[in-house]
């Protein structure tokens, strides 16, 4: 595992002397420098992503369509260039993943259908309580709801709605690309897969602190409330980031984390307080408990790597000297 000591961060394979010859065959600089390069690369990506949101000067709030369109442009440019950071990291460290860059970042066809469906199903099971709550509070019945969902006119309206496009398409795609597909391959050889699951979301959580700037600027609440809300959002996004990092590693695909991210953006944080005061509180709370229970029960089976084929990050770690990563089996 990575350790911060007198020699700085140390590469995963250093703790296994018997595999040093294999790690040395990778070429490149010393292991301590490799890890510092990885951390600096991830930090640079996070700063670039957030910074791209503020290259446009505007007095309008972040939800204004004009602001959203401008930010679409800058964030898509940064996200499109982010794989170059992984390429530069590979050249600087000398680590050879053993697969193509696109495959390493989760763009591959092998196992794509289960990778798209099973993580989303697992996430919907976790949100069983909130989905029940949404259905109880919805004035229309199931048949009417399906008609609305399947109607081409509804989708056409969504595709012209800047808020919908940001929350359901652009944000999930670009954030998962930058904070999972690009960062995890750089962090995994340094920390190992387990620690990377919890390290990578820290960059993701901190990146959401920029909302404080806009809330203070437009005085949307008291200073104390704004910082309390930011701390809560950091915690929530860090936990969510760990979950999607886990999905990315276990499936070897980007599509699952993107779809789960989009779904969670739509659902928002579960309204537990509203559920406690709901007229049908008992069945609703039972749905919450059942959803969490089933999620924990199905987490390992539905993310079994055997369902998704060869995992690129596991191949990368094998070449870095770690063939016993627990998340790979």
From TrEMBL:
Annotated GO CC locations: endoplasmic reticulum membrane
Keyword Metal-binding: no
Subcellular location: Endoplasmic reticulum membrane
Top EC class of this enzyme: hydrolase
Domain CAAX prenyl protease 2/Lysostaphin resistance protein A-like residues, every copy: 163-267
MF-aspect GO terms: metalloendopeptidase activity
Record keyword Glycoprotein present: no
Transmembrane portions of the chain: 109-128, 226-249, 255-276, 283-302
UniProt keywords, alphabetically: Endoplasmic reticulum, Hydrolase, Membrane, Protease, Transmembrane, Transmembrane helix
Mode of membrane association: Multi-pass membrane protein
Its EC number(s): 3.4.26.1
GO biological process: CAAX-box protein processing
Catalysed reactions, semicolon-separated: Hydrolyzes the peptide bond -P2-(S-farnesyl or geranylgeranyl)C-P1'-P2'-P3'-COOH where P1' and P2' are amino acids with aliphatic sidechains and P3' is any C-terminal residue
Family under the similarity heading: Belongs to the peptidase U48 family.
Protein name: CAAX prenyl protease 2
Organism the protein comes from: Chrysochloris asiatica
């Amino acid at each position: 595992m990575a350790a911060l000591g007198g020699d700085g961060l140390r590469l995963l394979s250093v703790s296994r002397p018997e595999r040093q010859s294999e790690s040395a065959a990778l070429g490149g600089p010393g292991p301590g420098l490799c890890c510092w390069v990885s951390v600096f690369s991830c930090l640079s990506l996070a700063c670039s992503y957030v910074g791209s949101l503020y290259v446009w000067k505007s007095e309008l709030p972040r939800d204004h369509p004009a602001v959203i369109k401008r930010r679409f442009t800058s964030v898509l440019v940064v996200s499109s260039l982010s794989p170059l950071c992984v390429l530069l990291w590979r050249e600087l460290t000398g680590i050879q993943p053993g697969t193509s860059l696109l495959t390493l970042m989760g763009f591959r066809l092998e196992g794509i259908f289960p990778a798209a469906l099973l993580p989303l199903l697992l996430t919907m099971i976790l949100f069983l309580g909130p989905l029940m709550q949404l259905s109880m509070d919805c004035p229309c019945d199931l048949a009417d709801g399906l008609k609305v969902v399947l109607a081409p006119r509804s989708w056409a309206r969504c595709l012209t709605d800047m808020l919908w496009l940001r929350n359901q398409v652009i944000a999930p795609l670009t954030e998962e690309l930058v904070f999972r597909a690009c960062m995890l391959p750089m962090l995994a050889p340094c920390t190992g897969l387990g620690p990377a699951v919890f390290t990578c979301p820290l960059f993701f959580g901190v990146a959401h602190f920029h909302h404080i700037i806009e809330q203070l600027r437009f005085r949307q609440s008291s200073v104390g409330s704004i910082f309390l809300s930011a701390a809560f959002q950091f915690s929530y996004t860090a936990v969510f980031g760990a979950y999607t990092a886990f999905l990315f590693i276990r499936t070897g695909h980007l599509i699952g984390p993107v779809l789960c991210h989009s779904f969670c953006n739509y659902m928002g944080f579960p309204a537990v307080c509203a559920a406690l005061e709901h007229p049908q509180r008992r069945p609703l709370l039972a749905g919450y408990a059942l959803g969490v229970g089933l999620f924990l029960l199905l987490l390992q089976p539905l993310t079994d790597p055997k369902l998704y084929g060869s995992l690129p990050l596991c191949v990368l770690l094998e070449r870095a000297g770690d063939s016993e990563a627990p998340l790979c089996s």
